[in-house]
Write a structure and sequence with these properties.
The complex is a heterodimer. Chain A is α+β, with helices and mostly antiparallel strands. Chain A is 36% helix and 24% strand. Chain A has helices spanning 18-25, 39-45, 81-86, 88-93, 95-102, 107-110, 115-121, 128-134, 152-155, 232-240, 245-258, 269-293, and strands at residues 11-14, 30-33, 52-55, 65-68, 72-76, 138-143, 146-151, 156-158, 161-162, 169-175, 183-189, 200-208, 215-222, 229-230. In chain A, helix 11 (245-258) packs antiparallel against helix 12. The radius of gyration of chain A is 19 Å and the shape is globular. The N and C termini of chain A lie far apart (65 Å). The longest helix of chain B has 14 residues, at 106-119. The N and C termini of chain B lie far apart (39 Å). Classes of the chains: A alpha+beta, B alpha+beta.
Amino acid sequence: MLARPGLPGFEYVKASTPAEVHQLMQQEGVRLMMGGTDLLVQMREGTIRPRVVVDVKHLPGMREVEFDEGQGLTIGAAVTMNQLAQHPAVQTSCPALAQAAHSVASYQVRNRATLGGNLCNASPCADTGPAMVALDAAMVLRGSKGQREVPAERFFLGPGRTALQPDEFLTAIRIPPPPAGAASCYLKLGRSRSGDLALVGVAVVGFPDGTESGYRFRVALGSVAPVPLRVPAAEKVLAYDPPGEESFAAAAGKAMDAAAPISDVRAGAAYQRMMVRVLTLRALRQVWSTLGEGR
Amino acid sequence: MSDLYEVSVTVNGTVYQRSVEPRLLLSDFLRHELGLTGTHVGCEHGVCGACTVLFDGEPVRSCLMFAVQANGHQVSTVEGLGTMEELHPLQQAFWEAHAVQCGFCTPGVLMTLLPFLEENPTPSEEEIREAISGNLCRCTGYQHIVDAVLLAAEKMPSQGDC
């Protein structure tokens, strides 16, 4: 029986140990697969043509979420978007991540799509990227000679490019415990309310801190630069000026200035830039309102 | 041609053993190997939802999986719902509310809604619209589908019966 024309043959390996993965990665034309929701589309389009597909989601710990008051969250790279969106510890400690995960594609795709896959695919419009950056997450990369952690901000190098070395793969994502009294959110603009890729994604984390303003905010943008973009200029405004409409508007303006979108089939750059300002303002208001509940 | 892999997949309660190439999609496996053509194939990009089946009870896109990945797993397709003589209550509600026009999206919509209604037997219209947001229908404007789900929620026993 024939498969679809255009999908060339390959070898499939369901890996059960990291050593097996490292051994296979020494060959040419090897692609690692988790949920497969991006990989299969790329194979169909012919943009990649792997000789061997290695399914790594069954490795130990890859599909588990652990939460510890002191350590924070450790999320296996193959944890699905629905798992994340519905996980009580993720919802409580990192609402921005739960919301970002929930905003990805459709319910059916979220049952397969994984956090690690979304990050390693390194699409500029990936929803979980800005959340990772704003939440100060670290990527746990396992190489053939050992393990290292890379901060989210340094993990993304460009569209489709990450800090992963040829012998490394992502096994987990660590998110430190949220600072006391922290609030966060992720807001996304797509062409429709659900299912679409982000035209703009904004993740904001805020918490009481010993700054001039008494609060520190972390602001990260998605879909408006080659990589998820943290906006230090906006964060600086918010660290000095008292929280409120005036400083939020100023910070949102800084976010708009930092954004460097390109016009494409989904939206024009000028529109995206303006929407960065709108969404950043809304996200700051929302986080501030949640912080207010604990004030 | 790459090597063949032996798979054993339980579809609608029946165990099927086949030799497949890794490149064979689960959707094509169901349709061409097993002849279960109720699962439709639309966009093959995971967008349209027509190929939705239950994989270990959870709705997934069968066009975004390889058949080899289903080895040892349970798959449910629209063929496992009702029969021509006795429709599943959800199918009956679709019939009564005229939620089917061309019918292309219907199997995917039904398979999406089945676990949804088991988890949420009395959904609001808003919840229904979110539940079917991953299924594209070019005929109905969705209103009749929403009506059908509301009707089904009235008819169906709150514990899943299939």
